[in-house]
Specification:
Elements (H helix, E strand, L loop, with lengths): L11 H17 L10 H9 L10 H6 L16 H32 L11 E5 L16 E10 L4 E4 L10 E3 L3 E3 L16 E3 L2 E3 L2 E8 L6 E6 L8 E4 L7 H10 L13
Antiparallel strand pairs: 1-2, 1-5, 2-3, 3-4, 6-7, 8-9, 9-10
Helix pairs in contact: 1-4, 2-4
Length: 268
């Protein structure tokens, strides 16, 4: 069993895709209009190469021999179009093999990357690039979420975090997505979370801002942040439950030109 976005235990298909993407990206930068024609050659070069783990090529594992590649030296022909095509295929094959080797070296360097080691109870930041945070613009959204406490170290590079209960995601992450939290004057114990207000015997938190929305699915909801709390405490609230922040709701709808299907609630 593996975790999502785990560089070493990501699925076999994902690893192959990542490797192919590296050299194909560089290759397509030159052949952007005809890249589909060269996919079979890229696939052949990948399957005919000896892999570091298997010590054999995929072709040899499946068939017991290596298929004959395109010849590196072509006989001259009297037909110009054939001669040009053979020269082009030779160039493409040699370039593809070179890019495959470049991709292999990059994968090796990535696997040898040194990762931070964490302990149970330690607080860490979580990279937000793979999280559906709900912010209107992902480019302007926080790059990290947290800090979160490590509940358990499941292995040398895998950790279980104490995530907010409203986050409906798997709480186990690879160390590459974590960075140590260092307590400073800006992130210290002096900034404690304020207690909720008691209104008619019920706890109510002050909404600081509305930072996102999802109206395509029912019920329609808005992502709100609370005064004195970090973004890890943001919650999705149904529109009918936002009577205590109607001014913020109306301002958000006007600013982002949102067209909710349900009527805006009124003060009770």
């Amino acid at each position: 069993m593996s975790t999502a976005f785990h560089p070493q235990t990501d699925g076999e298909t994902e690893q192959v895709n990542q490797e192919i993407e590296v050299y194909l990206r560089a290759f397509c930068s030159k052949e952007q209009t005809r890249w589909k024609e060269y996919l079979p050659l890229a696939e052949f070069a990948h399957n005919n190469r000896t892999h570091s783990v298997l010590k054999k090529s995929p072709f040899y594992m499946m068939m017991g021999y290596h298929p004959r590649p395109l010849p590196t030296i072509f006989e001259k022909t009297t037909i110009p179009s054939v001669e040009e095509r053979l020269e082009e295929l030779k160039r493409v094959r040699e370039e593809t093999v070179s890019l495959l080797e470049l991709a292999r070296q990059q994968m090796i360097r990535r696997e040898k990357q040194k990762l931070d080691m964490f302990k149970e109870g330690q607080k860490v930041w979580l990279e937000a690039k793979n999280l559906a945070t709900g912010y209107p613009s992902k480019k302007l959204a926080p790059k990290r979420e947290g800090p979160f406490k490590i509940l358990k170290a499941l292995g040398p590079v895998t950790y279980k975090l104490d995530l907010p209960h409203q986050w409906k995601i798997h709480p186990v992450f690879h160390a590459a997505l974590l960075s140590p939290f260092k307590q400073t004057e800006a992130h210290g114990l002096s900034f404690t979370e304020p207690p909720p207000d008691l209104i008619e015997g019920f706890e109510e938190y002050e909404v600081e801002a509305i930072v996102g929305h999802r109206l395509k699915k029912r019920p329609q909801e808005f992502l709100v942040s609370y005064t004195g709390y970090d973004s890890s405490h943001n919650r999705w609230i149904r529109m009918e439950g936002m009577t205590n922040c109607l001014d913020l709701l109306k301002g958000y709808i006007k600013k982002h030109r949102v067209k909710p299907k349900d009527p805006i609630p009124t003060e009770t």
